[in-house]
Amino acid sequence: QVQLVESGGGLVQVGGSLRLSCVASGLTFGNYAMGWFRRAPGKEREFVAAIKWSGDSTYTADPVKGRFTISRDNAKNTVYLQMNSLKPEDTANYYCAARHTTGPETSLRTPDGADYWGKGTLVTVSS
Predict the structure, then answer these.
(1) Residues 36/56, Cβ–Cβ less than 8 Å
(2) Is residue 13 scored above 90 in pLDDT?
(3) What is the Cα–Cα distance from 40 to 123, expressed in whole angstroms?
(4) How far, in Å, CA of 36 to CA of 14, rounded?
(5) What number of CA atoms fall less than 13 Å from residue 81's CA on the CB side?
(6) Neighbours of 38 (CB within 10 A)
(7) How far apart are CA 88 and CA 69, in angstroms?
(8) CA distance 70 to 75
(9) Does the structure show a pLDDT above 90 at 106?
(10) How do residues 50-86 score in pLDDT, each as one tens digit?
(11) Cα separation of 46 and 38, whole Å?
(12) Can you tell me the mean pLDDT for 7-11?
């Protein structure tokens, strides 16, 4: 079956960096747009970033634009989220998502666009 397994979360100070990874199995990775969402305590799940199956196009949410970068390695079935200049408001559970499409990655900019989800990894930014 399809599995998406996130890693790389943890506790970091304001201004610090983390890199999240998500390894996919049970699917043909190159046929999927991949994305990251997050859910802060008491808030709805929100879109963070998405990347096209080919890796040559990305879409990033305004709150993290210029600080977070999504990338992928199709040979490793892995998608990454490099997070720099972290702020307390970035504290959340971060979830990896996959959508079966070879079209634009923007189709994965809402939660209902995902076909599969990981279980999440917690990022805590301390001030």
Answers:
(1) no
(2) yes
(3) 10
(4) 21
(5) 33
(6) 23
(7) 18
(8) 16
(9) no
(10) 999 999 999 999 999 999 999 999 999 999 999 999 9
(11) 5
(12) 98
Q: Token pair for residue 21?
A: 């990874």
Average pLDDT, the chain: 96
* Spatial contact of 8 and 68, defined as CB atoms under 8 Å apart: no
Reduce the DSSP state of residue 103 to 3 states and report it: coil
- In whole angstroms, what is the distance from residue 56 CA to residue 121 CA? 26
Token code pair at residue 66? 């210029």
Would you say residue 105 has pLDDT above 90? no
Q: Are 70 and 80 in contact (CB under 8 A)?
A: yes
Burial class (CB in 10 A: 0-12, 13-18, 19+), 4: buried
Compute how many other C-beta atoms are within 10 angstroms of the C-beta atom of residue 30: 13
Question: Other CB atoms closer than 10 Å to residue 24's CB: what's the count?
Answer: 22
